[in-house]
Amino acid sequence: MTNRRGLLIILSSPSGAGKSTLSKRLIEWDPDISFSVSATTRKPREGEVNGQDYYFKSHNEFESLVKNGEMLEHAQVFDNFYGSPKGPVEYAINAGHDVLFDIDWQGGQQVRASALGKHVLSIFILPPSILELERRLKTRAQDSNEVIAGRMVKSRDEISHWPEYDFVLVNDDLNETFGRLKTIISAERLRISQQPELVDIVRTLNNEFEGRP
Amino acid sequence: MTNRRGLLIILSSPSGAGKSTLSKRLIEWDPDISFSVSATTRKPREGEVNGQDYYFKSHNEFESLVKNGEMLEHAQVFDNFYGSPKGPVEYAINAGHDVLFDIDWQGGQQVRASALGKHVLSIFILPPSILELERRLKTRAQDSNEVIAGRMVKSRDEISHWPEYDFVLVNDDLNETFGRLKTIISAERLRISQQPELVDIVRTLNNEFEGRP
Q1: What digits encode the pLDDT tens for the residues A133-178?
Q2: How high is the pLDDT of residue B210?
Q3: How many Å apart are CA B77 and CA B42, to the nearest integer?
Q4: Any idea what the Cα angle at residue B89 is, between residues A163 and B56, rounded to 5°?
Q5: From CA B132, how far away is CA A133, in angstroms rounded?
Q6: Residue ranges of the domains in chain B?
Q7: Residue in A with minimal Cα distance to B163
Q8: What pLDDT digit, counting tens, does each position of B168-198 carry?
Q9: How far is A146 from chain B (nearest CA, A)?
Q10: Residues 6 or more apart in contact with residue A12 via CB below 8 angstroms
């Protein structure tokens, strides 16, 4: 039986809207969904494993990956590059696994425009309110006020790109939003493009028509 | 708040695959889904109500509806015409209701090609096997062997059009298939095209950004 081809699931949102929690829950929910492992030029931190947390690359290696069209998307953050290598994603979706991308609108645009763009399912998570978004960032208590202010500016920019996505969920209630995410992914798998086995099923039905008494 | 625009839900299948039961369950499940009432030139039967069971039309009336582009699809069956009038469907979807079409591939093609084609969600139901399909037609015990044989020929033709649909469900188990139908419709309503209220939601979020202390 032919495997379905996996989906590239893009999940974007301003930070604090619940994206990380929802992503983790998705991975736990279905072993057929895995995170896209990013490549980066930054140095590995204590305990980080190459190929699991990141693919650690030199600047030269990263540049040649980009030049050879082997990155689905990439961006520069200060002095370092980050990006999503195409190879592992292609391998996963050809084996019938979905790959989850926790990326921003710029990454989303690049992945949609890539060779694997037609396999993209993109979902944007909106916060119920901006005060709530700011409150969540502050209660994390991991960032300075300056960093939070910067995130809020980036959030506004991020939110402005919601119309580029297939689906938008307003994350009022985490359980409800997670339920909707599962509904979207479950439905998408019932599309004919996600059921290559239909060709064989219909061939069998036709043979049965021929073989009837 | 802006209403979402309803969907034209096309459900097609060979007869005996479970389409009628699934349609009835959908209508019961969600009061926002209603059947498209067909127009026909055939005479009303005992107890049939105009505008509820059918819109009963004279041949002349029907022809002028077709000529004026007021039928989403139509077909001739022996001496009578049957079809789906556009007006009531437009009215329903503009009020945020989904309209369910129990039509064959020929009707499906016409509705997709119509002015409302971009609001179509189309689902094809396959039987688990042809023997099972024939068994179901026979146990209905309402048709002669000749009629059943005719239906089987039509079934084969109908099945050959599965690739024209958005989704295909193999109806192995009625409850499971119904669950999948609900999943597909629930997911479709989360598409940005089905959530016109997002524009207002994002406007409110932007105002909150402006108004922060």
Answers
A1: 998 888 877 788 898 899 899 999 999 999 999 999 999 999 999 9
A2: 87
A3: 10
A4: 170
A5: 55
A6: 8-36+97-211
A7: A192
A8: 999 999 999 999 999 999 999 999 999 999 9
A9: 15
A10: A19, A103, A104, A105, A107, A108, A122, A123, A124, A125, A158, A161, A165
How many CB atoms within 10 Å of residue A24?
13
**Per-residue pLDDT tens for B6-16?**
999 999 999 88
Rg of chain A, C-alpha, whole Å = 20
d(CA B149, CA A48): 67
Report, as an integer, the average pLDDT of B156-177: 96
* Angle made by CA atoms B153, B155, B160, in degrees to the nearest 5: 105
Report the amino acid identity of residue B26. L
CB contact set of B52 (below 8 Å; sequence gap of 6+):
B37
| Residue A132 sits at the chain B interface (C-beta within 8 Å) | no
CATH-assigned architecture of domain A8-36+97-211? 3-Layer(aba) Sandwich (3.40)
Taking the C-alpha atoms of residue B68 and residue B31, their distance in angstroms, rounded to an integer, is 31
Total Cβ atoms within 10 A of residue A135: 13
| pTM of the complete model | 0.91
ipTM: 0.89
Residue indicated by tokens 């049957």? B82
Please say whether the beta carbons of B93 and B7 come within 8 A.
yes
* Average pLDDT for B115-119: 93
Averaged pLDDT, B95-122? 95
Test the B interface: residue of A129, A190, A207 with most B CBs within 10 Å: A190
Tokens representing A153 are 């500016």
Q: What share of chain B is helix, strand, coil (3-state, %, to 5)?
A: 50, 20, 30
